[in-house]
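[worker-b] picked up task from shared queue
[worker-b] task type: protein-ligand structure
[worker-b] ligand name resolved to flavin-adenine dinucleotide; SMILES cross-checked against name lookup, match
[worker-b] sequence length check passed
[worker-b] input payload:
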Amino acid sequence: MFRYLSFCLVNPGHPMSLERLTQDPRVAVRRLGAANEGRCVVYWMQRAQRGVDNPALNTAIEAGNAIDLPVAVFFGLHPRYPNSNLRHYAFLLDGINETRRRIEERNCAFVFRPWPEHDLIAFCEEVHAALVVGDENPMREPESWRRSASEKLRIPFWTVDADVIVPASSFPDEEYAAYTIRPKIHRLLPVFLHPLSNPEARRGWDEKNRPAGRELDPERLLDELPIDRTASPVAVRGGTTEALRRLDDFIKNRLANYDTGRNLPDRQGSSELSAYLHFGHIGPHTVALAVRDSHAAQAAKDAFLEQLIVRRELAVNFVARNPDYDTLAGCHAWARKTLEEHASDPRPHLYTESQLESASTEDRLWNAAQREMMLSGRMHGYLRMYWAKKILEWSESPEAAFEIAVRLNDKYELDGRDPNGYAGIAWSIGAKHDRPWAPRRPVFGSIRYMSAAGCARKFDVKSYIGRVDAMEQGRLW
Ligand SMILES: Cc1cc2nc3c(=O)[nH]c(=O)nc-3n(C[C@H](O)[C@H](O)[C@H](O)COP(=O)(O)OP(=O)(O)OC[C@H]3O[C@@H](n4cnc5c(N)ncnc54)[C@H](O)[C@@H]3O)c2cc1C
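[worker-b] inference finished, payload out:
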């Protein structure tokens, strides 16, 4: 017997608190069918890799406190997560040691089990778990792992949507565009956007029973695990402390420019938090509340929160509700039709994937964007749409363009393999969440077009290329 249920944000007194949902987790555990002879609560940490402001961890601790059991946080590392490589694992492992420390400070055990010992079910049997709490991720693979776990577990399994502010389950259908989801999100923000409580586990582990994990030695793990090594690590620190430092720096020095300066070539108008949000090193509540409560002008705050909440959660909705989120098939019929009508238009250039990957096109701006992504794990936000649209213009079909953009984005971006990436590529190539544009253009049809000349009017191309050259020569990181 198992249960697989999803709810979110469990603060005492909150309208959706565990308290109010079940009155008493002990009753819930019994009602949900567990024998309730378990000896601990397990939090299966996957996406929300942090020890603070983590609604899934909070839920596990609150449940453990209510049924007087200790909490074990289980982190199983699989070396072949789809489209991941050495670059991503190095960033992930850089953050996880700190996460362990923060979790242990909250009186929980942190158990790290890399492949081939990463099996959750075996761990739950070993520690006699009474209840498992997981965090949610709309992507295909983690969602299938959760379904499979829910079928195998014989104890209650709750999942918490810990990396969005408004839980994705609030939007059961695929949203058409930002204008359809925005009013719904704004209506629900007063319910969900609150500081999180970060409780401590009341019952700790005695040394005799504390579950053992493996040593967490990032360098050794990176050497030993059978990881794809085609993209090398970059000089960017992972972890919650670094994410909080960047958030603080952004609010003090750059938030004020956010609504007007996103096209500045030195990234003066952006937070650079996407990789930390992707790996769960920082949660959206922390970021949104810090920005909301800052002294910046309201227009700058609103512009930032629109991206962090509305656009980001629209992307989550797209991936959660559209099974074709990573191919052109996930885009609107009108967009596929207009692309199909222009499929045989002559292309100004036709590049192979390896020419694109090695930044060997005729377009210096595009090459610089591609080089920046390969070197630093991050492409300037202003250029991402231009980058993807040019791949459409230079590939033999829109389907192929979509696939190439996904492969390169996922491989080199630290924040790749994320709902935002699939939504961003679908937006650029297949007009997802966008509308038809006139006049019709060769190759693009009614899809919004972007030219190098148009980019140059709004963006200091020369200075940007100079920065990427300097980065390549090791003069600037
Ligand atoms: C072709 C293309 C590919 C993209 N690939 C990715 C990707 O792989 N991973 C990724 O996280 N984002 C991706 N984006 C969205 C966006 O460009 C990045 O989130 C942003 O540039 C990250 O930089 P930042 O953290 O400084 O963002 P900021 O401008 O400081 O914004 C703060 C946060 O808001 C969210 N956000 C910002 N812009 C968007 C957006 N357009 N859609 C959804 N959420 C947004 C991000 O989580 C971001 O960290 C892509 C966009 C396009 C057009």
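[worker-b] attaching auto-annotations
[worker-b] The first helix runs from residue 18 to 22.
[worker-b] releasing lock
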